[in-house]
Amino acid sequence: MFKSPSVSPEYEKQRLSALYSYDILGEALEDELDNLVKLAAQIANVPMAYISFVDRENIILKSAFGIGSEYKIIPRNVTVCQHTMMLDKIFLVPDVSLDAELSTNSMLSLNNGIQFYASAPLKDADGFELGCLVLLDNVARNLTENQIEALETLAVQVVAQLALKRKNAQLIAQTQRYDEFIDIFTVSPEIHCILDRNGAILFINDAVTPMLQYSVNEVTGKDIWNYCYRDDIDRIVYAIERGLRNKEKQFRLDFRLVSKTGEVKWISWGMVAKEQRWYCYGRDISEAKKVEQELTKLSFVASKVNNGVVINDPQNNVMWVNDAFEKITGFNLEDLKGKPLGDLISGPETDWSLIENARTLTRQKQSFTVDILAYRKDKQKIWLSIYNTVVLDIDGKVETEVEIIIDITEKKKAEEELQILSLVASKTDTGVAITNERGEITWVNEALENLVGYSLDELSGSMLGDLLSSSETDKEVIVNAREKALNKQAYTIEVLAHKKDKTPIWLSVANTPIINAIGQLERQVELIYDITKRKQIEKEMLESREQALQLSEAKEMFLSVMSHEIRTPLNAVIGMTHLLLDNNPKASQINDLNILKFSGENLLNIINDILDFTKIETGNLQLESSPFDLHSLSVDIINSLQMSAGKRGNLLNLFYDDTIPEQLLGDKTRLYQVIINLIGNAIKFTENGKIDLVITVKGKTDNEVTIYFEIKDTGIGIPKDKQSYIFETFTQARADISRKYGGTGLGLAITKKLLKLYNSEINVESTEGKGTIFSFAIKFNLLSDSYVATKQASSTTVFTGKKILVVDDNEVNILIAKRFLTKWGLIIDFATNGEEAINKVVNNIYDLIFMDIRMPGIDGFDTTRIIREIQGDYFKTVPIIALTASTLHNENMKFKESGMNGHILKPFNPDEIKEVLTNYFKG
């Protein structure tokens, strides 16, 4: 009839845990359950009833009615309850004798001839089976529907009684814990209080009275700020507000309270913010603060000494160390605080018995001195001399230990070395001198006698520096060295001396002080080397360096001056070419003029390459950072080179990634130069082929984007063994390149160096006869959302009626400037020198001044300074633009210092002049 329930071990474990949580297997809850059992027997009109709980191995009968006490505990394996409790409804057997399995069950019959059996399962709110409510009778019977329904209700009520009993037990325990907490808070020597969000005291314990002399009633309801020390309030508020902004809920603060008698006490507070309340506890740390202040004073003094200072607590744990100790051992206060010093500085070869003996002396309140082999934080060996002083309190107990620690590693080494030195010093080629504590010679070896020409008898009792010094010797070096020796510090100096025969000699002197057992300077050992040859080499190297710097400056000056001399006539050539092309030349002249324009611009590009390379080499070229449209730039480059590519039968293509941001921040001009150089090279070395410019996004963040550039061609290619040379200056892949294809050999060198400024590397892949791929990646900053692009006026109508003064001593430059500027509706005035320019500026009102830099007499810089120094807003604000053919790196600074607003580089480019005028006349 019954089968073992298919319950997993894990479920049975959970069911038992639920049963035990009600604490009902003992004597508890007997009376409450008795009433329910009797009621169940009365409702069913049976003589026997009980409640059973199914434990791990037994069935426990609770509140049995009509059943003897000998049946209180029944083995689980022979009972029916263990099965019926798993059912979802009442198990009812009207006549047991008709059931073969139940009629033979010894427990069910109870030796009383049981004929009727009914069982209602007891399940808690989580569905776990606890046991059964059971009814028995000696005669066969049945239950009505009302009796069954009542029995089910009583089963629910039994479980409810169990839950109520458990809840009551929990409430009693919680109340007891609350009372215990109240008792703890009440008798605690620390202040415990609860504040509202505004600082009003809602609760405070009795500790407020002995600590601050206020009663609990006096402060309850008052504002905590009333008792705070005034000078601390701003600091407290700032710390709390900052913490709350950072989502902190717990605070540790030290601040002062003022007692009823006016006494100021330091309180260490722990504060927790929770549900519009502050839960606080405070401990009186006034005495600790006094000790801390005293230690601060002591630490200030100790921090100024060169020896290590360590302060320990009575348990020999470190409380404080000075900076000198950290320099000596490498350990800082964070490494050591709260730990015994000996544990940290000891190592494999440390004599631990010395540490144990020192600790025994401390426990016996005795000071001590000990020399010990210790280990630095980096595990290097170090010899320390420790002078320990025990400080006792008024009761004669150890309060603190103060230890003075001296690094005697050098002394120990010197002692060891001295033993060896005594054996070899007399035979070595190095000069050796031993002096007393005052530095007076007591012994020298033969090598030193030979080195300086003096015998031991002549040197004995004298200071070596006094005998070997001359008017050329740096006396300050010797004085400083002697001071170090007296302070027991080793030193090494290099000094110019003279032998006995007055021959100059450079000496390197390495001095090691020898310290005795009580820390006194006993003697000094000096190793002396002749370094005359090395000093001569250093002097020659320094002179070579100076010559190299002068040569570099001369190279820069030469290139700049030459560029000025070349650009001045070139300005006339290119400027006049632009003017002739703009003045409707004859058809037969256009080709000649274009050739002249191309040749002039090609010459200008060569000069620019040389000058850019010089700027990069001398570190004077820096990238600008301004907004630009990379797509427009790449399209302009492709369009400008299409004709050049077409002449050689090449297809020039652009492949542009549409995900690239529209605006980037960078140096548009230098990027243009890089791409033009690489595509120009590709066109030059490709015929009837294809050149591709590929621009894609390689990576992107919120603030920057990495753009990948690739220039591919199907040209002549570069041999493998030449690919590492092509980025060198004035170098071509083959000897006939310049003759056959043209070029300076600077293009790729400049390109590589420009990309270096972008923190980028250029890569090359090439196969001779098949083509070349140059690639690089550059990170560009992105424009912020708040950036608003400025719109430039493109029409020259804004120039009409504006008055311009052009200052230049070159008649051709004046002619070219006049032709350009008058064509745009500007009123032009001219001056040929600085003095004439100043007079014209004083007597006229100009909207803008173009100022040549190099003029006879007063140059452009001085002319500008004089104009700016004249009283009046007009002279301070009129735009002055420099006209220059020079690119010396310091001239940009001179432009600003003299008061100039900008500059234009000759030869003049009409578009550049128009852009400058647009910037100043746009509104």
Explain what you see.
This protein is α+β, with helices and mostly antiparallel strands. The chain is 42% helix and 25% strand. The protein has 31 helices and 33 strands. The strands form 6 sheets. Strands 22, 23, 24, 25, 26, 27 and 28 form a 7-stranded mixed β-sheet that branches. A 6-stranded antiparallel β-sheet has the order 3-2-1-6-5-4. A 5-stranded antiparallel β-sheet has the order 8-7-11-10-9, with helices on both faces. β10 and β11 (277-284) form a beta hairpin. α2 packs antiparallel against α6, α22 (630-647) runs parallel beside α23 and α27 packs parallel to α28. It is extended, with a radius of gyration of 50 Å.
Biggest sheet: strands, sense, closure?
Answer: 7 strands, mixed
Distance between the termini: 106 Å
Give the percentage of residues in beta strands.
15-25%
Overall, the morphology is extended
Record field, number of beta strands? 33
List unreliable stretches of 5+ residues: 730-744, 790-794
Structural class of the secondary structure composition? alpha+beta
Question: Mind telling me the C-alpha Rg?
Answer: 50 Å
Instruction: Specify the number of helices.
Output: 31
Summarize the amount of helix as a percent range. Answer: 40-55%
Overall mean confidence score, pLDDT: 82
